[in-house]
Amino acid sequence: MASLQAVTRWLACAVSGLAIALPAVAQYPSKPIRFVAPIPPGGGPDIIGRLVASKLFEGSGQQVIVENRVGGNGIVAGEFVVRAPADGYTLLLGMDSLLTINPHLYRKMPFDPLKDLTPVASLVSNGFFLALHPQVAAKTLAEFIELAKKAQPPLQYASGGNGSQHHLTMERLKARAGFEMVHVPYKGGSPATTATVAGEVSAMMSGTSTAQQIRAGKLRAIAYTGRSRSGILPDVPTIAEMFPGFEMTQWYAILGPVGMPEPVLLQLRAEIAKVLRHPDIVERLKAAGGVEPWITTPAEFSAAIRADFEKNAELAQDIGIRID
User: Fold this and answer.
1) Which of 3, 9, 174, 206 has the fewest CB atoms within 10 Å around its CB?
2) Structural domain total, the chain
3) Three-state SS for 84?
């Protein structure tokens, strides 16, 4: 009887607690949501994040604000979100490099990206263009490789930072094709693009958001890193056409602190998927650089993270890249 009474009291408390908790969850969002971007304004995650933010929870009366916290290839922004309350109001506009590359480059990180961040929802996925300054005397990938092999001093290339996808993708090409270049890291893809357009460096692996500069003749795209050619610049051949099996893509996603309430996660995933299916957003994503919405289930997203983690572990070891 005592045991039955204890169970009864426990159930009463649980139901009471649930009754208190449910209205709080049901009111989500009851205040502005913050997307923390790991790069400066104008870069890929920032652009995509602002597009999603413009439609997310539309009609709720709550804004989604993008805040830029730059540094450490996403570590600064990631640590800020990890330390935030797990209530769904502070979220990370995460890049794949933070979860699948950084752990192989840094001996010590202030947090474990795979354990201390919750994958909320995937956003988009795309490849890179090997983009040159127009004065570089190469019109094809083969010509560029030959030029790079002979250049004295070596050509320089820009990236969005040490350990970024831009960085590892160029290093993988260097290793595959057998040429050398000097790496010049910038704080994000947008500053790296500006530097390449200005002629401070000869080349970069640029996101598809640089399609406008390419069409305007400010950059020359000679190759694409995707499995197949990009729909926005279909005349640009893939690197795989010269080096079979070469494929490097990047993705952006929304991540949060560990311990977020399941109802909030479910609501965020449903609302983000709805935004990514919105015809206006699909068109604006294409206009922003030909990126495609990447809508996954939690299981599919987790599997993709694990696969990229293992691939980049091998790549970092093969290339011999370490940051600290």
Assistant:
1) 3
2) 2
3) coil
Strands (E) in 31-166, as ranges, are 33-37, 64-68, 90-95, 117-132, 156-159
CB-based contacts of 170: which residues, under 8 Å, 6+ apart? 130, 157, 159, 181, 183, 203, 204, 205
**Which residue, among 173, 95, 101, has the nearest Cα to 131 in the 3D structure?**
173
> Beta strands 64-68 and 33-37: pairing type?
parallel
Angle between helix 298-319 and helix 165-177 axes, rounded to 10 deg: 50
pTM of the model: 0.77
26 and 266 Cβ atoms separated by less than 8 Å? no
What is the distance, to the nearest Å, from the Cα of residue 67 to the centroid of all Cα atoms in its chain?
16
DSSP SS3 for 83: coil
CA angle at residue 302 from 300 to 305, to 5 degrees? Answer: 110
Q: Confirm whether 153 is domain-assigned.
A: yes
- For residue 137, is it within any domain? yes
Residue 83, strand partner residues: none
Q: Rounded to 5 degrees, what are φ and ψ at 120?
A: -90, -60
Last residue of a domain, one of 241, 264, 298: 241
- Domain range for 296 is 29-125+249-319
146 and 105 within one domain? no
In a domain? residue 195 = yes
- At 145-196, the pLDDT tens digits run 999 999 999 999 999 888 888 899 999 999 999 999 999 999 888 899 999 9
Note whether 120 and 131 are same-domain residues: no
CATH code (residue 220): 3.40.190.10
Half-sphere exposure of 71 (CA within 13 A, CB side): 6
Tens of pLDDT, residue by residue over 273-316, are 999 999 999 998 887 767 889 999 999 999 999 999 998 898 88
